[in-house]
Fold each of these.
Amino acid sequence: MLTNKEKYREFCKKELNIPIFSKDWWLDAVCVDGEWDVALAEKGGNIFASMPYYMINKDMFKVIGMPSLTQTMGPYIKYPAGQKRYKKTFWEKELMSSLIEQLPSFDSFKQSFYHEVINWLPFYWKGFYSSVRYTYIIDNLVNEKNIFQTFSKNKRKNIEKAQRIVEVRSDLSADEFYNYHKMTLAKNGENILYSYEVFKNIYNSAYKNGSATNLYSIDKNGNIHSALFIVWDKNSTYALISSLDPDFRHSGSLSLLFYEAIKIASKCSKRFDFEGSMMEYAANSYRQFGGTLKPFYQIVKTNSKLLSVKNMVENRIASLWR
């Protein structure tokens, strides 16, 4: 008998609408410090819903969380052809309830659901709660020239300026991209938050599956101004990692890279997701590309009373230092 993970690998081969962050090869690449598995809701031997999860041991607690460089996960649901609207929520309740029941015992659960998942009530009824996050998305990538005209005047001006200063290329190795990002962060007094192992796994797997490219801007003196790593699936292209050398922050190069990435997205997917930050400066920049603000839910549950107290104390201490 096949395990759920084995069934899911076959499901991923056939179900092309599964988002990239839930594909089996992506999970193999990013789940290096723990294990991933999947809950499946089946009817008549057919899979109608899936929900991968990433389990790690943190201190003495069993935690279901988000792997590194993975924006969203959550349930994926197939709907019967011609299903009437009034039956949809009942279908979602039935399948999501089945997925929840299959989750292993945990002390803490935290997953960010895809923005398409707007009904999380079955989780609420099981004691989960949520907070809202936001991203900016450009929908309907049909005509790249029309897309450029939807950018703000200032953004278009920055892109045209950058086109006179830098050239866009796409041949950085995994080592070169990672080291460049690490260097630019260090100039700002920051540390890189993901491991080289995870990035190299993503780089190799995504390129192998025809789902990634890197872009960088370089001037005539050989200075790299900025870099961008994008990944995509059938429906969305994601700006996974962006990096800007603070010595060249005024060249407009990163805006140019996003524009080039959006043009690439128009040829391989339906929309461009900026993987929006909650930081005000990032939101301001992404908004000027003409994207639409989209909410998505972060679903949380803590079963361990000890962990609840620990989190409350840590949050209280953190607030005192703000």
Amino acid sequence: MKALPARPNLERLRREAKALQRACLAGDAEAVRRIALALPAAQPRGLPLGKAQTAVARGYGFASWPALRVALARPDAGEPPAVAKSAADLDAEQLAGEWFALSEAGDLNRLLRAIQVGKGRLEAARAVMQRDRGRYLAFQQVLVGGVQARHPKQRQLSAHALDSFGEAWTRPALIAAMDDPAPRVRWMAMHALSCHACGDKPEGLEAHVQGRIIAAATKDPNRKVRFHATHALAAGAVRAAIPALLEIRAHETDTKLRDAARYALWRLTGGGPLPKRPAPGV
């Protein structure tokens, strides 16, 4: 385990994670060894950036990238100025208190609007909330209930929130939401289950979840769901999806879906030049 430098810099650590990802794609033996130590179940070829960040964080003794970010936000991390960090701490505590209060009041609409803040502020506030396990579980339960709310927008935003605030026990609600009648809820649930860039996720997607996302990428009647399902397969490092993605790339008539499959295949195999990432507005 390495020690953090005396004056740690988050941007430098981001660059370290990106360099680790590139080295894994190139088959570098030392990079592959680092991934094997930090994430034994991960596939170095096609390694998502989120997992590379997790590996970097664990190399410095932190459980996850969000935990490393929160640690660097503390004054004792050696990152000046202390006054600014103190202000950041106060902001995190204020957000945590506001979100707890809204969830305890049962005001789902205001809560879903309130948590739409920048990633750094969200992660800092989440770390504060996690210190009070009882209140945090109740807060999460409100989001789980929101995935079953009457209005599709509420269900979508609740699934989106569980991308950052979810844990193992909240995953069944997202898995059920993959069958939601509203397309926007289906694809958001798949994203929340598979994306490692926000919050902690299992190292590997559950086999039955993999199968359902593969089915959505190939058979869902909504093309936007198919598009986002394809990206979820890449984000979740689902190598079992490669045959299905090859079929999409070879036979799909929709250009954007074909491009999405090509991009996902590049992420999963790490071979060839990087294709242009398709825009999400399909």
